[in-house]
Structures
1.
Amino acid sequence: MGEEAHTPAPDSDGPDWSRLWQWAYRLLRSKYAYDCRPADWEDMAGDAVLKVIVASAAGKVPSSGFDPWFCGLVHNEAIDHHRRETGRDGRRLNEPLEDAGEDVQLEGDLAQELATIDVQSLLDRTELEPHERLVLDYTYWYDLKSEEIAQILGGTTASTVRTWHRNALRKLREQAREV
């Protein structure tokens, strides 16, 4: 049965989350992300279990075929970790920000102001255009560059994406100052 053997069937008290975390950790260490540090394996295993918890709450955990589903989820965690570390193209490790100048200054100023503010409530209060919010999501949640975002959105250029990003940062900064 090897490393993938697991019986996650929940008992009356629910699944054994620590056992599930250990299984994810072993998969990452031996099969999916063996070149990472132990702290990374721990983080990725925790993220995988968190996704199972969220999927359970939403009723999206498969009743049959849990093992391959979970292995796929852990595998995707390893891929996401690799992309965060190196970028989608595998070449951005420790590369400086592409958008120098005003964007970097805006981000720095905004980071200082956000240190004492609830960011989620700030995002909820700020009137952002849908495309501006989307650019923020792709930039900060998915770590995508403006060229990649332009490709995803289609029909737009990287410079337009950078303009939307800059406008969204300005709006957030103005809203943060009003608080």
2.
Amino acid sequence: MKSAYLVAIVVSLSVFSTAFAAENGEIIFHDNGCNSCHYVEEKSAGPSISEIITKYAGDQRAQAWLEEKVRRGGSGSFGTTNMPPIIEPVTDEEIEIMVEWILSQKLEPHRSFD
């Protein structure tokens, strides 16, 4: 009986930590001004969240590639506009959480992250 409770607690904590990480991804995205250049559906200075999701859908390397792109910045993936690297004190863990959040979005018509 005690092992059943332990399993239930572990499962609950796992679900809670996933939801917490997703919420933190959106917070990190906004707190670092990413939403200034990356809108949901419309291209702005950078590609939209929708374009990012579409381009990298099903790509097993997307998480690592986008984390590196956020860290170092650059151009060429979606045109010639240069994306600046993210500045300190954003940690590698926060970048990972934010990219997970971006790639996990299920877009709805007219949804805004602003």
3.
Amino acid sequence: MEHLLLAPTFVKRAESDVPLQLQVLHKGVLRSVYSAIKTCSHLYIVGYRFPMTDYEFYLAFRSAVRTNESLRRIVVVNKPKPPSEMVQFVVHFQSLLERTGKEDLLEFDFGGVEEWVKKPLLL
């Protein structure tokens, strides 16, 4: 089993004002994430709202999910939300997976991260 923790990053794209070392590091992180997502059987997205402003990560994520033949489950874990916010959140993640062929694998857990970690992982 491989675990991958992706911390939020302020390097959203290559820009002239971002130091080259950070650009190289960011590209390396994206390659690592792509590789892990492309080969996993279960994908857990915990506490991440997946902002569309992080376009490079969005493209890497979609491509990796679309080409992953082993993927059986995608679980999005987040804190409890009011009903209207929950609907927006679900629609947002559904749109991320649109036309990947993996739309039916998407599940949500709005019990909060603290409660989710107490549950056994269903593999």
